[in-house]
Write a structure and sequence with these properties.
21% of the residues lie in helices and 22% in strands. The protein contains six helices and 17 strands. Strands 1, 2, 3, 4 and 5 form a five-stranded mixed beta sheet that branches. It has a four-stranded antiparallel beta sheet with strand order 14-11-10-17, with no helix packed on it. Helix 1 crosses helix 2, helix 3 crosses helix 4 and helix 5 runs parallel beside helix 6. It is globular and about 65 Å long.
């Protein structure tokens, strides 16, 4: 989110780039949500920082079309002008086999740019944005927008598209507990894609972030304050290397990653003006979305066959796991913390018991974000 880093110095951008690269990322999609010099200046700073890091870390602009106007043909002017600045930049992300600069959006299926209503939205983008941009730069854009609320069956009928990012988020919506980041990364290994985009690096307002919480995003920041996700970067590196090279790195250290929500699904917040998130609650004891599970989740990296014990309150479960990576879950007890131990040959070799965590039975406000902890 470029807006989060609107006031960052080049050194701050460079620090984030170094951290992202250490976690297996090759670049950032720069979500531009302001038709102003604020985001344009931040984008320039980001490209400058990337250049100082080296050409291996790539960037591309993703225009947020929920903000940028796109009704008249003239609305394309600022989009073309900003894209033109970086089309030939050494850190501009390109499609590797053709060298085409990647051009992306968030949304935009309702854009007409003054074109006939009988044409498709992709044709409007092609005529008013992509072709003029190609003429101005001598490079044909590789168009992979992030579309939502669009019938995916229509994508194959649109030759203007080179691909589509599957991106969807909402500030008061949650996803299945077993569809959290660590499960999603392992699932992605089977996808035949030339790029995988993680949602997101720093969208604190939607609780989808991997970077350390910097406190710079005031929108809904209460949902992420104190709930760090950056421990996932080491796990991300493992999956990233596996996807990019076809071979997973050798596991040389036993590691436990834990994740858990702040409070039970049935908890009633005592002072929350926003209310519980939407998502299909069917009544009963469920206050939040009915699919949310009152459990904590473990991602185990084991160097050899191991025994893993997960405990919360009086509930304990023990699992046998093979060498490699294993996903586990165990119930949480309200008012209790959580812990996990990994044993090999009858000896405990790793213990993770976050002292700062309690599954809060009486929250003041609702929060369906996750805490993440790691023994690494």
């Amino acid at each position: 989110m470029v807006g989060v880093g609107a006031t960052w110095t080049e050194a701050q951008w460079l620090s984030d780039i170094k951290l992202a690269a250490s976690g297996g990322f090759d670049g950032f999609a720069l979500n531009a949500a302001e038709e102003s010099l604020i985001d344009a200046t931040a984008i320039a700073t980001a490209f400058s920082a990337a250049k100082s890091f080296g050409t291996t870390f790539k960037l591309f602009i993703s225009f947020d079309m929920t903000v940028f106007p796109c009704i008249a043909a003239g609305d394309a002017t600022v989009i073309i002008a900003l894209s033109k600045l970086y089309a030939s930049h050494s850190n501009q992300a390109t499609y590797k086999s053709t060298g085409q600069p990647i051009f992306s959006t968030f949304g935009g299926s309702d854009c007409t740019f003054g074109q006939s209503a009988t044409g498709t939205w992709s044709q409007a983008w092609s005529v008013v944005v992509l072709k003029p941009l190609a003429t101005a730069t001598g490079k044909t854009p590789f168009f992979i927008p992030a579309m939502y609320e669009v019938n995916s069956a229509t994508f194959n009928t649109m030759p203007e598209l080179q691909g589509v990012f599957n991106w969807m988020g909402d500030t008061n919506l949650t996803w299945d507990s077993d569809k959290a980041y660590i499960s999603g990364m392992s699932d992605s290994q089977n996808r035949d894609s030339f790029v995988i985009e993680a949602v997101t690096w720093n969208d604190y307002g939607e609780s989808t972030y991997l970077s350390p919480v910097l406190g710079t995003d005031s929108i809904n920041s209460a949902w992420c304050t104190g709930l760090e996700h950056s421990s996932l970067l080491s796990a991300n590196f493992y999956y990233s290397e596996g996807w990019k090279t076809g071979t997973y790195p050798k596991i040389t250290t036993n590691v436990i990653h834990l994740q858990a929500r702040p409070h039970p699904n049935a908890a009633k917040a005592s002072n929350d003006s926003t209310g519980a998130p939407a998502g299909g609650s069917t009544g009963g004891n469920s206050i939040g979305p009915s699919w949310e599970i009152d459990s904590f989740f473990a991602l185990i990296f084991a160097t050899a066959a191991s025994s893993v014990t997960m405990t919360s309150g009086k509930t304990t479960n023990t699992f046998s796991v093979a060498a490699g990576v294993t996903h586990l879950s165990s119930p949480l007890e309200a008012g209790s913390g959580m812990s996990a131990t990994l044993s090999q040959g009858g000896k405990t070799v790793v213990t993770l018991a976050p002292s700062s965590y309690t599954f809060n039975a009486n929250p003041t406000t609702y929060n369906f974000n996750y805490y993440f902890f790691s023994s690494a």
